[in-house]
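This follows on from our talk about sequence and fold. Go ahead and set the record down below:
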Amino acid sequence: MRWRQRLRLIPFLLLPLACVTALALGWWYGLTALVWGAVAGAGLGLALRGVRWLVRAPPLSLLLGTVGGLVGLGMGALLTPALARLPGNLGVFLPLGVSLFLGLIGGWTALTRQGALLEAFPILERLARAPHFTSLYLLDASALTDGRVSGLAATGLLRGALSVPRFVVDDLRRMAESADPSLRARGRWGLEVLNRLRHAHRASLTVLPGDARGEDRSEDRLVALAQRRKAVLVTADSSVARRAHGRGVQVLNISDLADALKPMVRPGEVLQVRIIQEGERPGQGVGFLDDGTMVVVEQGQRYIDQFVDVVVMRTHHTPTGRILFAQPRETTAKEGHA
């Protein structure tokens, strides 16, 4: 049974435990069962919420929350001898309450200050990247220059540690200093995305100092490094994705993911598109949807720089995305009447 399935059994174990604890404390200290029933119910509710969070939380958050909670409980244990000297029931319940409160504060602080803790204690991230504990996502230059990986990380879908090899950062810096304006802009944008990921609230990123030996090309070094570390390779380059698949490396292709999330367009559906240029064949016009999908409009050349309603005729999928082929709506209507 997997650990997430085991956690789901905890609520069924907490209910009898809370009832037995309430009855024992009520009998021992002479308090009414109603008061202890309310206390047990409140504790059970909090425990159920905690279990629900444990099932859904990322592994890195689980590790940091656990460490922070243990630190808080340790501080409470140091205060317990002094608080236990208080008279009556105060000396019994106050140490327990203070320890639980400090444990919650420690766990909450660790969760809300993940970036600062990982910078101060790098060993925590190494523990989080241990085998069978979490996934390690290895980013290449194309994923950073593409830019969409920062939005993907902000959603919290990448449940694991993000890492970038040092030689990829060096490649981006060389691109940013290139004499080619287009290459220079891409390099600077990649470094900007890298900086955003370093300061992201829901993602932690580290630069790996290691390198893959025996490989000359940057792409081959990247695939070898992902293979050795059993990491998920995040890329926007289809050729790198194919090379990684060939070597048994798990790949997250951002372009494929974006294409899969685009709204479905079926033949016969009517769209409005702005024709911006001529197509490859005579009479064709080309436009783009808001998500970047190319629309090739037959007999659309005369509508350049205009918005026109088109009817989708067919869809063609390519390694770089999909292409829609359509005709102007009025042309389709005339053919239908004929």
